[in-house]
Amino acid sequence: MSRPTPLRGVHEALGATLTDFAGWLMPLRYGSESAEHNAVRQAAGLFDLSHMGEIFVTGPQAAEALDYALVGYVSALEPGRARYTMIVNAEGGVLDDLIVYRLAPEEFMVVANASNYPMVAAQLTERAKAFDAVVDDRSDRYALIAVQGPRSQEILATLTDADLGGLKYYAGLPATVSGRPALIARTGYTGEDGFELFVDGADAEPLWAALTEAGEPYGLRPAGLSARDTLRLEAGMPLYGNELSAALTPFDAGLGRVVRFDKPGDFVGRAALEPLKDVPPSRRLVGLVATGRRVPRHGYPVVDAGGAVVGEVTSGAPSQSLGRPIAMAYVDNGPAEGLAVDIRGSHEPVEVVDLPFYRRNK
Amino acid sequence: MSSIPEELNYTKEHEWVAGLDDGLTLTVGITAYAAEALGDVVYVQVPEVGASVSAGDAVGEVESTKSVSDIYAPVGGEIVEVNSAVVDDPSLVNGDPYGEGWLFRVRLEGDADDLLSAEEYAALTSGES
């Protein structure tokens, strides 16, 4: 039985197609997912992301505890700022990718994926034991609503006095939105400018309604997980379970930059990861653009000109922005020419391209 | 609730079949229920004209943002026409599944006894939704 978010009634009233995602009953799409995708690229989209986890770490040694527990240099973060980071196991395998917000000098919020946050909370609790810090999983209390797209700031500005123009990318500030308390973060998973609002679950419905009304003149529309997936794929952003897993290190995923060996002290995974930092991996995560119209999908083999398997697709979808199917794949080092994806027995040619597939005009 | 036109026949694989009462050439497409379940259709592969098919054969595929599904021959016979418009514009499957979104025509050989009535198909889909 999937868990509903506080916005379930809203999704049902909108006629959403609901789907189970990581144990949650989530909106897959409200109408056409292509229209939702395009609305986010051209105007704005409204997302329910209440399935994400919010884990608070507080106390005099909260920063040191997170420096030890995560690969990032959390203690160097200024209050009000956020960082993309990861939690790895002792072998360096990725347990989850995270965003850490420093809300105050001794207060941090760790945002984890729906499928992983109970494990992340347990790991943080274990790893923080030797520190003067308290780990508190508040995921059940929070709803998360995202407004994403080029018109996001104009829409949100009609509902808050907060200084949105002064809010940098990967920063957050406590504010009031439509009369209700919200942590406004300038973050997202779409490749567009946008905001994520962390709010009390009881405030989710009225805030959704206020945003819907405020966004109407700007072309805002509700957008489901299907659009979220194609948007993040175009933006070249990894999805845990697809591009990231415990079998891969951050270096394997081409994200070695998030591992901060320059921070003080030991951290979980340091001993395993340190020897890997200058070793070029034998395969790398690449972008693929299909020549034809069939879509390479998760798990499909990548083959070379001779038909030998040289990699595997991690995510794939038709791209609205490119007009062709795109995919991310782990591919062995070797010639990039002549590659194809085995799509149910037929070798469909692909071009290897740099990620991301899509970059917004700033 | 998606529409299930009374005058058509259906299959368990969520295809519709038109023309059973009139003659031997049947038109085949996917139902509104299937189109809604798939989401935006982005690619349609139809069978070759002239191909000889048996009931239940996979003869093509319909691909949406999130998934790909086979198209099956609802009856045995020869493929006599395919809808090139839907190959060029797969969104016709979503926009007009029972009309412009038709997929192919097959000249019936043998029987069509396994097809469902509209009432039977409605019962099938209400059980699934």
Automatic annotation (TrEMBL), chain A:
Checking InterPro entries in the record gives: GcvT, GcvT/YgfZ/DmdA, GcvT/YgfZ_C, GcvT_bac, GcvT_C, GCVT_N, TrmE/GcvT-like
Kindly state which reaction or reactions the protein catalyses: N(6)-[(R)-S(8)-aminomethyldihydrolipoyl]-L-lysyl-[protein] + (6S)-5,6,7,8-tetrahydrofolate = N(6)-[(R)-dihydrolipoyl]-L-lysyl-[protein] + (6R)-5,10-methylene-5,6,7,8-tetrahydrofolate + NH4(+)
Q: Where is the GCVT N-terminal domain?
A: 9-263
Check the record and name the SUPFAM superfamilies matching this protein: Aminomethyltransferase beta-barrel domain, Folate-binding domain
Q: Which Pfam families match?
A: GCV_T (PF01571), GCV_T_C (PF08669)
UniProt keyword annotation of Transferase present: yes
- Provide any one GO MF term from the record: aminomethyltransferase activity
Domain Aminomethyltransferase C-terminal residue range list = 283-358
GO cellular component, as recorded: cytosol; glycine cleavage complex
Q: Where does substrate bind?
A: 196
Q: Which UniProt keywords apply?
A: Aminotransferase, Transferase
**Listed EC numbers:** 2.1.2.10
Q: Which GO terms describe its biological process?
A: glycine decarboxylation via glycine cleavage system
Please give the superkingdom of this protein's source: Bacteria
- Keyword Translocase present in the record's keywords: the answer is no
Its function?
The glycine cleavage system catalyzes the degradation of glycine.
PANTHER family attached to this UniProt entry: AMINOMETHYLTRANSFERASE, AMINOMETHYLTRANSFERASE, MITOCHONDRIAL
Quaternary structure note: The glycine cleavage system is composed of four proteins: P, T, L and H.
Q: Which NCBIfam families match?
A: gcvT (TIGR00528), PRK00389.1 (NF001567)
Q: Tell me its family.
A: Belongs to the GcvT family.
By what name is this protein known?
A: Aminomethyltransferase
Q: Which species?
A: Planobispora siamensis
From TrEMBL, chain B:
Q: Which Gene3D superfamilies match?
A: 2.40.50.100
Q: Name one Pfam family in it.
A: GCV_H
Work out whether the entry's keyword set contains Coiled coil.
Answer: no
Specify the protein name.
Glycine cleavage system H protein
Q: How is the cofactor bound?
A: Binds 1 lipoyl cofactor covalently.
What this chain does, per the record? The glycine cleavage system catalyzes the degradation of glycine. The H protein shuttles the methylamine group of glycine from the P protein to the T protein.
| Listed GO biological process terms | glycine decarboxylation via glycine cleavage system; protein lipoylation
The UniProt similarity line reads: Belongs to the GcvH family.
Complex and partners: The glycine cleavage system is composed of four proteins: P, T, L and H.
**GO CC terms for this protein?**
cytosol; glycine cleavage complex
Cofactor names? (R)-lipoate
Q: Which residues carry this modification: N6-lipoyllysine?
A: 66
Q: What is the lineage of its organism?
A: Bacteria, Bacillati, Actinomycetota, Actinomycetes, Streptosporangiales
Which gene underlies this protein?
Answer: gcvH
Q: Which PANTHER family match?
A: GLYCINE CLEAVAGE SYSTEM H PROTEIN, GLYCINE CLEAVAGE SYSTEM H PROTEIN-RELATED
